[in-house]
Specification:
heterodimer; A: about 120 residues; seven-stranded mixed beta sheet; four-stranded antiparallel beta sheet; B: about 110 residues; mainly beta; three-stranded antiparallel beta sheet
């Protein structure tokens, strides 16, 4: 069974940094692209970033480009999101999502439980 | 403002058929597969439909998907109380080089 456990969220001041992690199990991690998707409280879903199985291609939403960095460690079956220069509008639940193939152009197959990031002074 | 357009709400009575629409453009729905996600209250989204009309294992055949041009739709027949949830469409956008979502439709079973 696919399991994705998101962690690292919390309360952070504007302009500061935070690093999210996603621990994956139940599937061959390096066979799939991975994503981060967020959802502001009471709002809809927004794709944040995606990374191919071997990290050779990475994509970001315009809203986070230049501030967020996605990475993965296939030896540790883990996905990360380094978030710098955080803004109040980055406040959201952040979900790790497993892709359906090696490329992040294919649909999100499974989702983690989410971790809440609150950016506020 | 979401790139894909969905009605904010839909409703039906048990046993009815309900359809949720998703409208996009040539750079997303018009050139990519559409997928749908169901978000039950207090839970993470779950894949409901992929590649326009393919159901993952475990999704009842009461759910069906279709796509025509730059629009897609999700149909739910034999509506049940447990179908009450938010439904989101999504597609890859070639112009943005990223995934785009609809704003979500809250389905109420009356």
């Amino acid at each position: 069974e696919v399991q994705l456990v998101d962690s690292g969220g919390g309360l952070v001041q504007p302009g500061r940094s935070l690093r999210l992690s996603c621990a994956a199990s139940g599937f061959t991690f390096d066979d799939y692209a991975m994503h981060w998707v967020r959802q502001a409280p009471g709002k809809g879903l927004e794709w944040v970033s995606g990374i191919t199985w071997n990290s050779d291609s990475i994509g970001y939403a315009d809203s986070v480009k230049g501030r967020f960095t996605i990475s993965r460690d296939n030896d540790k079956n883990s996905l990360y999101l380094q978030m710098n220069s955080l803004r109040p509008e980055d406040t959201a639940f952040y979900y790790c999502a497993k892709g359906s193939t090696v490329t992040f152009r294919d649909y999100f197959h499974s989702w983690g439980q989410g971790t809440l990031v609150t950016v506020s002074s | 403002q979401s790139v894909l357009t969905q009605p904010p709400s839909a409703s039906g009575t048990p046993g009815q058929r309900v359809t949720i629409s998703c409208s996009g453009s040539s750079s997303n729905i018009g050139s990519s597969y559409v997928c749908w996600y169901q978000e039950l209250p207090g839970t993470a989204p779950k894949l409901l439909m992929y590649r326009n009309n393919q159901r993952p294992s475990g999704v009842p055949d009461r759910f069906s998907g279709s796509k025509s041009g730059t629009s897609a739709s999700l149909a739910i027949s034999g509506l049940r109380s447990e179908d009450e949830a938010h439904y989101y469409c999504a597609a890859w956008d070639d112009s943005l080089s990223g995934w785009v979502f609809g704003g979500g439709t809250k389905l109420t079973v009356l």
